[in-house]
Amino acid sequence: MKKLSVKQNDLVVVLSGKDKGKKGKVLSVDPQSGKIVVEKVNMVTYHKKPRKQGEQGGILKKEAPFYACKVMRVCPKCDKPTRLGHKLLAGGKKVRVCKKCGAEI
Fold this sequence. Notes:
- This protein has strands spanning 11-14, 23-30, 35-38, 43-48, 58-63, 66-67, 71-73, 84-88, 94-98.
- It is 0% helix and 41% strand.
- A hairpin with a 4-residue loop joins strand 2 and strand 3.
- The protein has 105 residues and is mainly beta.
- It has a five-stranded antiparallel β-sheet, with no helix packed on it. Strands 4-5 form a two-stranded antiparallel sheet. A two-stranded antiparallel ribbon has the order 8-9.
């Protein structure tokens, strides 16, 4: 199992590949394979055959998983791609912080 820097519902920007520069929300994370699914990024076409009577088949599009190392977290305050740091609060709670502006994420 790999340690990933992104979590579900994080806003990320794609660093490489066909969707380079696109921003999106992380829909799911799989630490076992180190892959994530991002909204409206890495769209693939697949063919669906109708299984039940009245069900619609056809050519559909959906998001496919890709490696988490290809994305970087976007800071909500400075709106720039940034690495994550960690900080301990007074109560002993650990929070993620932006390395560029120092804001809590």
